[in-house]
Amino acid sequence: MFLTVTSTAPDATDLGYLLHKHPDRVQTFELPVGLAHVFYPEATAQRCTVALLLEVDPIGLVRHKRFGGGDAFALAQYVNDRPYAASSMLAVALGRVFSTALKGRCKARPDLEGRALPLTVRIPGTPVHGGSQLLRRLFEPLGWTVAETSEPLDPEVPAWGDSPYRDVTLTGTLTLADALGHLYVLLPVLDGAKHYWVSSDEVDKLVRSGGSWLAGHPERDLITRRYLAHQRRFVEDATARLNELDDQPDLDSGPESTPAQAVPAVEPAVPLLVRRREAVLQALRDAGAHRVVDLGCGDGKLLRALLQDPGFTEVVGVDVSATELSRAADRLNLDRLPDSVRARLRLRQSSVTYRDPAVAGYDAVVLMEVVEHVDPDRMPSLERAVFGHARPRACVVTTPNREYNALYENLRDGGMRHPDHRFEWTRAEFATWVDGVCAAYGYRAEFRPVGDVDADRGSPTQLALLTLVTPGDAAGRGEVA
Predict the structure, then answer these.
(1) E-strand spans in 219-363?
(2) Are 9 and 117 spatial neighbours (Cβ–Cβ below 8 Å)?
(3) 3-state DSSP assignment of residue 129
(4) Could you give the CA distance from residue 175 to residue 116 in angstroms, rounded to a whole number?
C-alpha cells in the first residue's frame, strides 16, 4: 500500500516539521500488520513530498488471532486484496506513524500549527465501493478537488465494466492535521471493510478523529455506519456524540431533516455539551459534594468526568434503560478501569419518578438534561422521589432554555431540541418550578447560565443548584449573572 502527500507551500520542507519526520532520513516502523516505511521522494523549498509505504505481511495477518479469524483453512484468508489495496491497514499506519501530526502539534515549529497548506494527496490502488460518485460525495464537502482514474476489470470483456480500484488524487488547501484526519476516517469507509474486529473503542476513535468536521458532513450517516461496520449500537452512540459536538439540537435524522444551525456565524470555541458538563462539575464542587448520583445518566458522559476527578469518591449512575446502562459500561471501558477507579462506580437501573432507597442520603444528585424527558403529570412523582425521599444535600438541575430556541434556524417555528422532549421551559417557567420545589422540600436555589448569553433570550442551557436548608439557615434564592 502506498500514499504520498505533497506540499507546494513556500518553504515546502516545513512539511517535515509538521510530520516529525526528517526529509533526509528513511524511517521504518513495525506494526501489527507489517512494516511501514516513511521517506521523501522530493524535498525542495518549492515542493516536498512524503511517502508512506506499507509492506503487509499476509501470512502474519492470518496467524494473528485478532486478524486471522477462526477458520484457518478459509481460502479467503490467503487469496484476497488486503495486502495491496488501500484500506483500514493504511489508515492504521497513518495513525501510528503520523500520530503527532494528526493532533496538529508541532513542538519544533509551533508557528506552523493550524496553518493551511496547498496539498496534493495521491493514493493508488484505492478500493471505492460506491464508485466515483461516492468518492466525490465524501471528499468534496471537505474542500478537496477529486481526480481519479480506473482500469477496466478485464480489457477483453468490456461488459464487466471498470475495476473497483481507483488511482485517487486529492488537491486542496487544508491544514495537514485535517488532511490526515480525513484519510484516517475515510479510507476504511471507501473500502467498506476493516481488517480487525470493531469494538466500542472505534466510537472514540471516530469522534476523536472526525469530531471537528464529521458532525456537519452531508454523508455523516453513511460514514458512521461504514466506519463502525454497521453495528447499530455503536452507530447510535457515535451519532449522539457527534450531534453534541456539533452543538446542535438533536433532531430527527430522517431524510427530510436538516441539522439546525445557530444564527451566530462564529461557533463557540467550546461545545455546549462540554460547557454544560463543566458547569455541573463546578456546581458539585461548590456544594462540597463527594458522593454523587447521576440520575438519568444515559451513556455515561458525566460519569466519565466524575471518575476523572478523585474528589468524587463515590459515583452512582442511574438510568431506566438497560440499553443505556450497557452503553455506559462500554463507553467507560469498565473491564479496563483500574481497580481503584472501578471501586468508586456503581451502575443501577431505576427511575427518576420512583423511590429508590439505594440512592438516598448522597451528597448530591444530578439531573442533567433529564426533567424535560418526563411527562408533566409525572413531575410531582420526580419531585417526591428526589427531594422528598432521596433528599440529597444538593441537587444540580440543567434543562434547555426554550427562549433560546429562536436562535436555531430549524426551531424558529416552535419545535423542541429533541424528539423525546415532553416540554421545554422558559427561564420564568424554570424559576417557578424550582421555587416551588424549594418551598415544598426545604431547599434554597442559585441560578447559573450555561453557554453564551444572549441579551434578550438568555443562555441556551439553564442550571439551578438547589441546596438543602439546614437549621439556622434562611431559605432563599440567589442568582449569578
Answers:
(1) 291-295, 314-319, 345-349
(2) yes
(3) coil
(4) 4
Q: CA-to-CA distance for 128 and 166, rounded, in angstroms?
A: 7
Reduced to 3 states, what is the DSSP secondary structure of residue 160? helix
What residue ranges do the domains of the chain occupy? 2-197, 272-479
- Quote the pTM value: 0.53
| Sequence-distant (≥ 6) Cβ neighbours of residue 193 within 8 angstroms | 87, 88, 229
CA distances from 279 to 286, 322, 358 (A): 10, 27, 26
Whole-angstrom distance, CA of residue 321 vs CA of residue 315: 18
The per-residue pLDDT for range 234-255, each reduced to its tens digit, is 777 777 766 655 444 443 333 3
**Selection from 154, 135, 142, 280 nearest residue 213 by Cα:** 142
Question: 162-175 and 461-468: which strand pairing?
Answer: unpaired
> Which of these ranges, 7-11, 41-45, 110-114, 177-181, has the smallest mean pLDDT?
110-114
CATH 3.20.20.140 fits 2-197, yes or no: no
In sequence order, what DSSP letters do the residues of 23-68 get, joined into one string? TT--EEEEETTEEEEEEEEEE-SS-EEEEEEEEE-HHHHHHSHHHH
d(CA 1, CA 432): 64
Class at the top of the CATH hierarchy for domain 272-479: alpha beta
- Could you give the CA distance from residue 172 to residue 119 in angstroms, rounded to a whole number? 6
Q: Which residues are CB-neighbours of 317 under 8 A, at least 6 positions away?
A: 294, 297, 300, 303, 325, 328, 345, 346, 347, 348
Residue with cell 475495476: 163
